[in-house]
Design brief:
CATH class of the largest domain: Mainly Beta
Radius of gyration: 20 Å
Shape: globular
Distance between the termini: 48 Å
Number of strands: 19
Structural class: alpha+beta
Helix content: 10-25%
Number of helices: 4
CATH architecture of the largest domain: Beta Barrel
Strand order of the largest sheet: 1-2-3-6-5-4
Order of helices and strands: HEEEEEEEEEEEEEEHEHEHEEE
Length: about 260
């Protein structure tokens, strides 16, 4: 057996072991989306997969069952469902150890059978904030194809461990993955409160090193560059523009995404 064949069989074995945690989410007349078993009774899926809040069903290889919506966070495109029968949750990958070029597998169950798409991690970046205010622990982008039905499904490492949830509902033309530490924080809030309570500015930002003159004037090395401004949001109303650099909030330095109020 050659190396490529060995890798292929090992990946297929990992997929076979965890595919029970990939569920089909049916909510409304549109085609089914995908969800992932977060725990034995909780399913995480992309919020845009849900066209209604009642009459939701999930399906696995073991059949269909009703699901209850616990909460939706539109800012991160995450929804949490509860079921009354045990599921098979995924083992979690060490997101901090991820590297560009690692093999990854996206799974989906848009219909009866599980589908897989193989790719590599193309970007592994630092934390950032989405326009709706959601803080994401790491920027993860892969070259897997998120065809219809893949949003809300898991991205797995070559060891079959959960890296995060794939979504095509946040950035057009990019296959983004919300990492599992981010999902854990959002799931906890949705289970407890039905929503995520966070400060809302309506900007997406990323850390940037300041020019020498600004460094000396403001006595700080870093700021937050505005990547996008949500139309009609507080930042838009205040005149914030894409490309602006945010330096302070309430007279406190902004040198990282976490310096904004935690999402």
């Amino acid at each position: 057996m050659n190396v490529i064949e060995s890798i292929s069989r090992e990946l297929a074995d990992h997929v076979a072991k965890v595919q029970g945690g990939v569920v089909r989410v049916q909510a409304g007349c549109r085609g089914g989306g995908t969800g992932l078993a977060w725990s034995e009774r909780l399913v995480v899926t992309a919020a845009h997969n849900l066209s209604r809040e009642e009459g939701i069903e999930i399906a696995t290889g073991a059949g269909r069952r009703p699901a209850t919506l616990l909460g939706i966070d539109g800012a991160s495109d995450v929804a949490v469902l509860r079921v009354d029968e045990d599921l098979a949750p995924f083992p979690k990958a060490d997101v901090d150890a991820l590297r560009v070029g690692e093999l990854v597998v996206a799974l989906a169950r848009p219909h009866e059978h599980v589908r897989a798409s193989l790719g590599v991690l193309s970007v592994v970046g630092s934390e950032y904030r989405l326009p709706g205010g959601a803080r994401v622990d790491r920027y993860l982008e892969s070259d897997v194809r998120l065809t219809n039905g893949f949003s809300g499904g898991p991205l797995l490492s070559a060891r079959g461990e959960l890296i995060g949830m794939n979504t095509a509902g946040l950035v057009r033309s990019a296959a983004l993955t919300l990492p599992s530490p981010t999902l854990a924080r959002i799931v906890e809030a949705l289970v407890a409160h039905g929503r995520v309570q966070r400060a809302y500015l309506g900007v997406s930002v990323h850390g940037v090193r300041l020019a020498r003159r600004a460094n000396a004037e403001w006595r700080q090395r870093l700021g937050l560059v505005v990547l996008g401004v949500q139309p009609g949001g507080p930042a838009d109303a205040a005149g914030v523009l894409q490309g602006d650099i945010l330096l302070r909030l309430a007279n406190k330095p902004l040198e990282g995404v976490s310096d904004l109020e935690a999402g």
